[in-house]
């Protein structure tokens, strides 16, 4: 596999370097501030600003733009809209998955212990062991985010602050855990 920097060098147009470097110097803080207001996260804003600058490198000739600053801000604004849309879709998916788990837990809570067969109890214990095993094998950040969310009841914002990551990273971690757990349980049930 090629290093990431190598792939970027393949598409970058270095004749744009001076113009892009000038844009970075003159407008970096304004662009990040603009994006932070839209994204509500400085880390996400910085990532999008960086991607917007990289996009300028890939153009044929930045000097041909009538207003490079306006183009830069429009590219960054479009990227932020795309990011927000992805986050909304992701949040909707997480909410849907969470409601499924909540419904399942509610249904289990309403079952009296006498009504549970020994076979079902053994199956539940085995599923619980599988969940613990799956969680143990996950990356530390994903496991920590999931446990803080499910066991402690923390919000994604609280978890992000505790872990020193963005809220979108927390959402990604939890989504990954849910996918892994769903896959493990599905394999077990087969």
User: What's the average pLDDT?
Assistant: 80
Q: Specify the helix fraction band.
A: over 70%
Query: Which spans of ≥5 residues are poorly predicted at pLDDT below 50?
Result: 1-10
What string, H for helix and E for strand, traces the elements in order?
A: HHHHHHHH
The general outline is elongated
Describe the structure.
The chain has 190 residues and is mainly alpha-helical. The protein has 2 domains: 4-85; 115-189, Arc Repressor Mutant, subunit A, CATH 1.10.10. Helices cover 79% and strands 0% of the residues. It has helices at 4-11, 17-39, 42-57, 68-109, 118-137, 140-150, 156-163, 167-189. α2 (17-39) packs antiparallel against α3 (42-57), α2 (17-39) runs parallel beside α4 and α3 crosses α4 (68-109). The two termini are 36 Å apart. 19% of the residues are buried.
Put the structure in a nutshell.
This protein has helices at 4-11, 17-39, 42-57, 68-109, 118-137, 140-150, 156-163, 167-189. It is mainly alpha-helical and 190 residues long.
Produce the secondary structure layout.
Elements: H1 4-11, H2 17-39, H3 42-57, H4 68-109, H5 118-137, H6 140-150, H7 156-163, H8 167-189
Helix pairs in contact: 2-3, 2-4, 3-4, 4-8, 5-8, 6-7, 6-8, 7-8
Task: Considering the chains and any ligands shown, give keywords for the structure.
190 residues; mainly alpha; Arc Repressor Mutant, subunit A; 2 domains; 79% helix; elongated
